[in-house]
């Protein structure tokens, strides 16, 4: 029976979580297309301004609004989706917000001359994207086994990068058309991705933890058995349902969760909220989007003039670099990757900013060094902070307040995304490559933030994470902590614990 469950972990569970990651693909595809649309001549003629001297163009303000306004919708979607997820379930909420996203696309694709219609459509579509950025990791973390949670929740970021790359390729394929098809085709393709996710989720099982929280133990057991491809009577299923139920009972003994409990609840909810919010904000402050703003000028300095090719190159590095992260997170855990990644990004941002500030960036050799620095930064970001921020938030909160707390943390990410997206064109116009030093400092701060505040949650059930916080284990000792041997583990947490969990006639080393 153990072998059957193990097989299910690597087939049905993986397929389920990868499919749900299509929610990240929607966000990535939007990111990958909007920059290309703004550069299309036909799009400029319909929604830009006109000057006799320079022709059709987008001002910094209009560009900032069209690009960044989606983050406002995302922020709203994050906050609103939590209550819906508690009312109609994780699966149903994903379906509803996919429809909201599609409505936003309809508004955009039907626009003819009013640029504000594009903006309104992006706000509504952003609501769907933001909600899915909360709901999908939540659904994945509550559905997959703890042994696979890191790699499967990280797949959300992998699909974001895949969406970015596909978006770049689509706009490259259509940008040469002189008609509105140049920008309406990329927008219309969004319906394919939304349809796949929305229709497919109808056939996915609901979160077992959500069902049990609603008091439906039978449905929860059946859902868990379906996920593991085994019988509801399997002792492993019964054991896991019991563990989930005990955790929920402890949480519900204190009554119905409120928004205020995200700040005052136990165990240590305010600290946990700040950790999740901090990680999500710092993910944006690492400055990954800075390289996409400067990508065109950097690559032009070494003879690449096609901005669409530039975007595809950066997108390809981003996507390929994310793949190893799915496996690194299972081997090294969360903390070490986040710390090493932050230091790595700090180094390469310093190289990039220094070369651009103190050397002639139009020099081919300087440009090559800056390109290398940009690619090395993206490699570090894609393998560490890009996927792991979503993993940390998905693992940090108890089910009692998870939907609300994840909504707050994720909305912080989107709000910072908006601020960076909107103000970066103005800041870079004023201080140029020195802007990179700001992001380098943020990366260095992020390393210290993780070391002192973010505990290791690799291989722990969501219920054990609660115990970890309740025990008050210092973050730097959390990797050695064992819930069965006290707040600091055996020998004050100075050695790893080794235990064997016997299931049926087999023993598994944890």
TrEMBL record:
This is Sugar porter (SP) family MFS transporter. It comes from Spizellomyces punctatus (strain DAOM BR117). Belongs to the major facilitator superfamily. Sugar transporter (TC 2.A.1.1) family. PANTHER family: GALACTOSE TRANSPORTER-RELATED, PLASTIDIC GLUCOSE TRANSPORTER 4. It is found in: Membrane. Pfam families: Sugar_tr. Its main location: membrane. It comes from the Eukaryota. The lineage of its organism: Eukaryota, Fungi, Fungi incertae sedis, Chytridiomycota, Chytridiomycota incertae sedis. It is a multi-pass membrane protein.
């Amino acid at each position: 029976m153990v072998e059957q469950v193990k097989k299910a972990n690597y087939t049905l569970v993986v397929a389920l979580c990868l499919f749900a990651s299509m929610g990240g693909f929607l966000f990535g595809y939007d990111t990958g297309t909007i920059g290309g649309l703004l550069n299309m001549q036909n799009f400029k003629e319909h929604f830009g301004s006109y000057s006799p001297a320079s022709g059709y163009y987008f001002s910094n303000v209009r560009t900032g609004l069209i690009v960044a306004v989606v983050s406002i919708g995302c922020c709203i979607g994050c906050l609103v989706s939590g209550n819906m997820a508690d009312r109609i379930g994780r699966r149903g909420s994903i379906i509803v917000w996919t429809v909201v996203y599609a409505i936003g696309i309809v508004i955009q694709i039907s626009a003819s001359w009013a640029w504000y219609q594009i903006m309104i459509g992006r706000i509504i579509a952003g609501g769907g994207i933001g909600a899915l950025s909360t709901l999908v990791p939540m659904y994945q973390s509550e559905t997959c086994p703890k042994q696979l949670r890191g790699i499967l929740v990280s797949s959300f970021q992998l699909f974001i990068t895949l969406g970015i790359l596909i978006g770049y390729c689509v706009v490259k394929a259509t940008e040469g058309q002189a008609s509105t098809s140049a920008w309406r085709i990329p927008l219309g393709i969004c319906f394919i991705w939304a349809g796949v996710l929305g229709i497919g989720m109808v056939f996915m099982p609901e979160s077992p933890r959500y069902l049990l929280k609603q008091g439906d133990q039978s449905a929860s057991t059946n859902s868990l058995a379906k996920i593991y491809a085994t019988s509801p009577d399997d002792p492993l299923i019964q054991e896991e349902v019991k563990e989930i139920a005990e955790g929920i009972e402890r949480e519900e003994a204190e009554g119905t969760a409120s928004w205020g409990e995200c700040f005052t609840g136990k165990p240590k909810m305010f600290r946990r909220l700040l950790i999740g919010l901090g990680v999500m904000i710092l993910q944006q402050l690492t400055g990954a989007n800075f390289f996409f703003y400067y990508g065109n000028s950097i690559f032009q300095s070494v003879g690449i003039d096609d901005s669409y090719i530039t975007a595809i190159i950066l997108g390809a590095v981003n996507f390929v670099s994310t793949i190893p992260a799915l496996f690194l997170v299972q081997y090294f855990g969360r903390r070490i990757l986040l710390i090493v990644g932050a230091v790595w990004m700090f180094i390469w941002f310093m190289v990039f900013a220094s070369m651009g500030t103190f050397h002639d960036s139009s020099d081919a050799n300087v440009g090559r060094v800056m390109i290398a620095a940009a690619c090395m930064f993206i490699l570090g970001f894609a393998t560490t902070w890009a996927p792991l921020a979503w993993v940390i938030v998905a693992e940090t909160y108890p089910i009692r307040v998870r939907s609300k707390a994840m909504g707050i943390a994720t909305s912080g990410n989107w709000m910072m995304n908006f601020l960076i997206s909107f103000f970066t064109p103005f800041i870079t116009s004023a201080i140029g490559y020195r802007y990179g030093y700001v992001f380098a400092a943020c990366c260095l701060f992020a390393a210290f933030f993780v070391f002192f505040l973010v505990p290791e949650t690799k291989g722990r059930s969501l219920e054990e994470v609660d115990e970890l916080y309740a025990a008050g284990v210092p973050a730097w000792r959390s990797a050695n902590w064992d819930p069965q041997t006290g707040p600091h583990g055996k020998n004050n947490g100075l050695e790893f614990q080794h235990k064997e969990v016997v299931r049926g006639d087999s023993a598994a080393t944890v």
